[in-house]
Specification:
It contains twelve helices and twelve strands. Strands 2, 6, 7, 8, 9 and 10 form a six-stranded antiparallel beta sheet that branches. It has a two-stranded antiparallel ribbon with strand order 1-3. Strands 4-5 form a two-stranded antiparallel ribbon. Strand 4 and strand 5 form a beta hairpin. The chain is globular and about 60 Å long. It starts with 17 loop residues before the first strand and ends in an 8-residue tail after the last helix. The structure holds adenosine monophosphate and magnesium ion.
Length: 422
């Protein structure tokens, strides 16, 4: 049997934080994919283990030694409306692993059957979305974007009823933490300040140990979450990634991309692009993502207020000051990444000038239905080349001459780079 070196801590927080839940066995588990590279990083190996045994563990049919399966409680703002109790309706935390260098690997099955929090849901996942989450989250990891990872995908051999019957699947997800902004809201909404503090202490110890010795660790914790989230969303924007459902229950406290649902990498660039059919008003459209990030963080700050200062007015002032830093963190991370995508590294030009050059490109892309990923991919081929080589890039624009005009300014700027063309 697979050995997993669990060291579970969340379970110690007490039974108001979760409901212990066993996965519901499935009829015919088949292993579709096991992530050997990730397993290696986690100190696991499935080498020499019967593939049927691996499928049994990652479908929930067999519980590995040391696991303490539970469904986590959380609340959340869904499309702006507060729901006091959501929780893991189809996910079960098996346990936690402490890796080398302070890395944490929390291991969770998703699609493993109903829990206390399932409401009317079946607790299951269709295989299509399972494979989609596997691919997109692993792509994000390879793109150096903080994200939950995919350890395994299993077909259950059972159908799930959606608009029609679909094959079922279970994905095993790994995260630095499965605590969400909504987990803090769950306790704060009940006026349970002690549990909010307990949760914060748990998260600080595991995910933000660097703030533990601060004069007020909770203030620095808030700052650190704000900074990680700003940087994360800047990376999404640089990839044309649209999360789709940025509810507070889908925002990780560890600053990782989490809960891949109707997400997408945008094709033709439009700042207001939406992919999720349930997002009718475009609340989570591409260009709204940075602002929604701040909105969600403001909800987190509200939960932490009693810990920021004994005096409420002073606490609000502290929270506001920290939240105001979000914009700068975001802008800096966005500009640095976009400069890199355009081949600009010299800092001699003002931020404002480079930001305008990049914005001008995005505007031309939007007017001309240019593919987001392909445009930047093509640009990276062009750096150091004269305009005769622009063919592939020009073709991405409805009116190629609009690209030509922008490229003139871009090449003037590139010529001021002090580096070699490569
Ligand atoms: P989401 O916004 O999709 O991440 O999920 C919102 C809430 O619905 C969470 O509490 C989920 O656990 C729950 N949920 C989603 N799908 C199901 C399902 N098939 N069965 C039970 N609960 C579900
Ligand atoms: Mg969710």
């Amino acid at each position: 049997m697979l050995h997993i070196p669990f060291n579970n801590r969340y379970v110690d927080l007490g039974d108001t934080f979760y409901v212990k839940t066993q996965p519901t066995p499935v009829a015919g588990p088949t292993l579709i994919k096991f992530n050997d590279a990730l397993a290696h990083d986690m100190g696991l190996s499935a080498d020499g283990i019967d593939v049927g045994d691996v499928a049994a563990v990652f479908s929930g049919n067999a519980i590995p030694a040391g696991a303490e399966p539970l469904a986590m409680a959380y609340a959340g703002h869904q499309f702006g409306h507060f729901v006091p109790q959501l929780g893991d309706g189809r996910a079960i935390l098996l346990g936690e692993i402490n890796g080398a260098n302070g890395a944490n690997f929390d291991v969770q099955l998703k699609g493993s059957g109903p829990t206390f929090y399932s409401r009317n849901g079946d607790g299951r996942a269709a295989l299509g979305p399972v494979l989609r989450e596997y691919l997109v989250s692993e792509a994000m990891a390879k793109l150096n974007v903080p994200t939950t990872r995919a350890l395994a995908a299993v077909a259950t051999g059972e159908p799930v009823a959606r608009e029609r019957l679909l094959p079922g699947g279970v994905i095993t997800r790994v995260a630095a933490s499965f605590v969400r902004v909504g987990t803090f809201q769950f306790f704060a909404a009940q006026g349970d300040a002690e549990s909010v503090r307990k949760l914060a202490d748990y998260v600080i110890a595991r995910n933000y140990p660097e703030v533990a010795s601060a004069e007020n660790p909770y203030v620095d914790f808030l700052s650190a979450v704000i900074e990680r989230q700003a940087r994360l969303i800047a990376q999404w924007m640089q990839l044309g990634f649209i999360h789709g459902v940025m509810n507070t229950d889908n925002m990780s406290i560890a600053g990782e991309t989490i809960d891949y649902g109707p997400c997408a990498f945008m094709d033709a660039y439009a700042h207001n692009r939406v992919f999720s059919s349930i997002d009718r008003d475009g609340r989570y459209a591409y260009h709204n993502q940075p602002g929604i990030g701040l909105w969600n963080l403001t909800r987190l700050a509200e939960c932490l207020l009693p810990m920021l200062d004994d005096n409420t007015e002073a606490a609000v002032a502290v929270a506001q000051t920290r939240l105001e830093n979000y914009k700068d963190h975001y802008q800096q991370a966005w500009l640095a990444g976009m400069r890199a995508k355009c081949g600009l590294t010299a800092q001699e030009d003002s931020d404002q000038e480079d930001a305008s050059l990049i914005q001008a490109l995005l505007d031309v892309m939007a007017r001309n239905n240019a593919d987001f990923t392909l445009t930047f991919s093509c640009l990276s081929q062009l750096s150091g080349q004269s305009s005769e080589h622009d063919g592939d890039c020009r073709r991405l624009f409805d009116q190629p001459t609009e690209f030509d005009d922008w490229a003139v300014t871009w090449r003037q700027r590139l010529s001021r780079e002090m580096r070699g063309e490569e």
